[in-house]
């Protein structure tokens, strides 16, 4: 993004980071533990739901920080990121939070 002047100017706006698609990171969430850290930080600050989904996976699964992981997965659902609904719902059901899990799955309209 920074190699193209027009993109560099656009990237200073939070709106760009909030709406940026991070599919490569959502498919491989542990990649951003060592790479893309600046991009992830900016996307998290802007409230990007895909970034919160990735951060939630990293915290919950990799770092075993379940509280922080659930927090980020929850934020990803608030941003209507579909993959987050599924994972958050599964996590809630596994933790015994049946009502929350069922409510999340209802939002998927399966």
TrEMBL record:
Residues 37-99 form the At2g35280-like TPR domain. Pfam families: TPR_27. This is At2g35280-like TPR domain-containing protein. It comes from Brassica oleracea. The lineage of its organism: Eukaryota, Viridiplantae, Streptophyta, Embryophyta, Tracheophyta.
